[in-house]
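User: Hi! Is it possible to get a structure for several chains at once, not just one? Here's what I have:
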Amino acid sequence: MYWNQQPEKIAEFVHQKSIEILTEVGFCAPEESLLSRLSKAGFIVNQETKMVRITQELLEAALKTLPKDVKLFNRAGSIGLDFNNGSRFMGAGTPVNVLDLENGERRNATHQDVCNLITIQDALPQVDIVRPTVTATDLGNHSDLVEIAELARRTEKPIVHRTLSPERVEAAVELLAATRGGEEALRSQPNFATLYCPISPGYYTEENIQCMLKWAEYGVPITLLSMAMGGASAPVTLLGELVVINTDILAWIVVLQILFPGQKLLYGSVSSVLDMRTGILPLGAPERGMVNSGAAIMGHYYGIPSMCGGLSSDAKELDVQAGFEKTVTAVPLLLEGASIVYGVGSTDAGSEISYSQMIMDAEFIGGLRRMMQGISIHNLGEEVELIKANTPRGNFLKAKHTKINYAQHWKPEFLNRDAYETWFERGESLESKCREKAKRILQEHKHAPLPANVEAELERIIRRFLGPDFGFDPIK
Amino acid sequence: MKEELLEKLAQSVIDGEPEDAAALAKEALDQGLDPLECITNGLTKGIQKVGELFADGEYFLPELIIGADAMKGALDILEPALVGGQKREVVANVVLGTVEGDLHEIGKTLVGTMLTANGFKVKDIGVDQPASAFVEAVKESDATIIGASALLTTTMLQQEKLIQALEEAGLRKNVKVMVGGAPVTEAYAKKIGADGYAEDAISAVNLAFRLADAPE
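Assistant: Yes, the chains can be modeled jointly so their relative placement is included. Here is the combined structure:
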């Protein structure tokens, strides 16, 4: 247990405070048609201020229809990610910059980077859920649809993304449905979830509201993703910030359940606290892992998967800062059982994705997962006999028991355990090893292909919505 | 008596007490003190001290912001009382806002506070402001610097539109444009023809000094 109280007690406390805020003050929903729908449904709506308050009855009804068994599936719809057996890891996203694979320099990310980074996530067994992780800046305002199509084509793993405008949702659903043999599979065994951020406290933009309502019409899972900044857009204390996070999310759990009963939702938080020196939002701060572990607790409380920002850092390169911050922001999430840890590949407060960091993060995930196994109590009969037989000064390396059981120890791929001289003679940096691996993946890894007719259909859909110049494959 | 009041004014800014600052400003006017002297030898001294403490790592943003807030409250009382040709000395007039389609407020406001604390006069036009609103504000305020914030990859394009609008209004050569926000980079700023880019509020102040051609 990580917080100094039982998680259920914390959750109940925070939940009650959110109810107080949502019934007394409410939240702002600047979307005309939604306001009248909410008013009809029993919400207390102020048309002038666009403030909406909930009632106890609405809350109860919403929590009753909120689906508790939300899973994300593979593209075939055959395997659902189990969120009850340790945290799952997801690519970060989606800044406009990338640290170049060849020279590590910061530059605008392109369509090519999107394809590369999807392929790397597809290849890394430690990554469970794939994001484009960067924005294809060479595609301008059309990046969202192409990114969704590339996700759907280049990996069988569950994928997460969003559209930039509500008009795009229909096209995105068409693309996704084409890879699933129809909309029904997308709804019943979703391999895709979307995400939208409120501006905390208590506000979603008109456009984001329209996007969410549109996705809900198709029954696609939506992540309500708080991005609170403690000390700026939320109270500076972590518990106070958690109340803001929860209030923003609970408000829209109620809205979406009342309008679309049974709509699948995820509880998301990529929050942190404002750095009081620079005014940036540091994503490597211990507080980042701490406050988002609160979101994991709340996700458990409502019975929906939590998507929590962590395994993140403010480092500008693959260095000791990155190592410390990645770990310190991941551990609280793992301890509180976050369903999804959202951060693979991210660096510099989320401003860039780094190829080498993405590879290194996979290494960290391996070690962290091992750490989380803890020491299990088991029948020690064999070990005790072995100890007796080897006392004194025996050698356990010769024992069969060792050969059978050593596999459970974690074996790093990149972290160095060589003797000093070996290490010195090889002269390889972690950075160069990670870059080599990324390049090797890009050369060798083949994603599971879609049937040719589906590929052609995706291309047709893209062109129909974006024009004849758009297509796939900066590289085949 | 006068010295004591000026010192108290300065201290109210250093301690970050907006109510005290406003009350002291009123008291000073009631006692017939020169408002310009209250600003120069009271408030400005206070905010300079706040800036020093921040630079020394003793103060952090909360002290800075509430200090600037205290200063602003007192200025609102003292400035209207200036007589004749009296004018508060400012480094430069700045128009600040978040571009159209973007509702992000905090970073922009922080830059405004930091500029105020460093002697700039800031007209904050708020969030979701079309290029035309920036243009109008420049005309009204004789600003020589514009700060335009965008936090979304979709809205940063509005920063370019703003520069075009300034060209069209014939104002481009009168004002320097600085841009900022999470997705914005130095290269992007150059590409759209902005005069400068700052990554955070502190570098925004340094940039503004450079753009105003004033010593930092």
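The interface with chain B takes residues 95-97, 106, 108, 135, 137, 141, 164, 199, 203, 205, 229, 231-233, 274, 276-280, 351 of chain A (CB under 8 Å). The mean pLDDT of chain A is 95.

User: Great, thank you!
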